[in-house]
Specification:
By secondary structure, the protein is of the alpha/beta class. The protein has helices spanning about 5-10, 15-25, 40-50, 85-95, 120-145, 170-190, 220-230, 240-250, 255-275, 280, and strands at about 30-35, 55-60, 75-80, 100-105, 150-155, 195-200, 235. The protein contains ten helices and seven strands. It binds NADP nicotinamide-adenine-dinucleotide phosphate.
């Protein structure tokens, strides 16, 4: 079976054991590439890959100097801004033995739709979060085919399944990435490439600094992602928030949309109360 799904999957929405086995990829001994490897989830993923025994990691960053703290003889540092077509071409040429590609680099910039008529931040989110992974996929798909199929792992977000109106345009860019993940899974199945979508909840990194929710550590998220890949789970929910969210979403996307709206309204009301009574906010 390539892109076509079995009757059992169609009935239940869950992958069969056979499909999971076909998707599963071994981490030990593999050659990986991670975008945005210098901090946050990308750095945690790079460290987790090394500790799980990869043969090599191409750790990529806009500024390779920022990768200095990651010391390991299996690590190859590359400069890669995922919005720069020339750098993508050069990185793809350098990483000719890559088998596992982690599209991790991401930005969340805009916090509103209606407050501003400037589309710059929303466009930038699309450039980094969607066009970046798309370009990398275009460049690296032939390499993965030559190297036996391998896998692409797209670090998306629960906000890509149901828009989180704290970050509306970021959510839209992650929805685009989710859609690309689905397309790539089908289109690359024939060359033996597995495509994983990761739908994380709040993770304790610079990106979510302003978010007042309980957060999972990037380290725990990174290991959960690698566990998901080794288990062949094509949709990976790598933290407790994401697991609960994923369950609700799968049972009713509309209920999930209403739940998120209620959550955001509750937070907005709390924030405006705190603004009126700053002593309460500090407590
Ligand atoms: N934190 C969360 O709650 C959360 C939840 C769900 C999904 N995610 C996703 O997880 C991924 C990692 O996020 P994070 O939480 O680790 O965020 P982070 O700490 O802000 O790190 C973002 C990373 O992306 C890199 N980056 C940004 N623009 C880039 C570009 N044009 N080219 C290459 N690298 C670029 C950054 O590099 P610089 O240091 O050069 O800026 C940095 O390494 C993102 O895709 C994010 O959307 C995060």
């Amino acid at each position: 079976m390539t892109g076509a799904r079995t009757a059992a999957t169609k009935m239940t929405g869950q992958p069969t054991q056979k499909e999971e086995t076909m998707n599963a990829r071994r981490i030990e001994g593999a050659v990986a590439l991670v975008t945005g490897a210098n901090r946050g989830i990308g750095r945690a993923l790079t460290e987790a890959l090394l500790s799980r025994g990869v043969k090599k990691v191409y750790a990529t960053a806009r500024n390779p100097e920022a990768l200095r703290a990651l010391r390991d003889e299996r690590l190859v540092s590359l400069r890669l801004d995922v919005t720069d077509a020339d750098q993508i071409r050069a990185a793809a040429e350098a990483a000719s033995d890559v088998e596992l590609v982690f599209n991790n680099a991401g930005v969340a910039l805009a916090s509103a739709i209606a407050d501003s008529t400037d589309l710059g931040q929303a466009r930038r989110e699309m450039e980094v979060n969607y066009f970046g992974p798309l370009q990398l996929l275009q460049r690296l798909a032939p390499t993965l085919a030559r190297n036996g199929g391998g896998a692409v792992v797209n670090i998306g977000s629960a906000a890509g399944l149901t828009n989180l109106p704290f970050v509306p345009t970021y959510s839209a860019s992650k929805a685009a990435l989710h859609s690309l993940t689905q397309a790539a899974r089908f289109l690359l199945a024939a060359q033996g490439t597995s495509v994983f979508g990761v739908y994380a909840g709040p993770v304790d990194t610079d990106m979510s600094r302003e978010l007042a929710f309980p957060k999972t550590s990037p380290r725990d998220v990174a290991f959960a992602i690698l566990d998901g890949i080794e288990a062949g789970q094509e949709d990976i929910f790598p933290d407790p928030f994401a697991v609960d969210f994923g369950r609700r979403f799968q049972s009713s996307p509309k209920a999930s949309e209403r739940q998120v709206a209620a959550m955001v309204s509750g937070e907005a009301a709390r924030a405006s109360r705190d603004q009126e009574r700053p002593e309460r906010a500090r407590a």
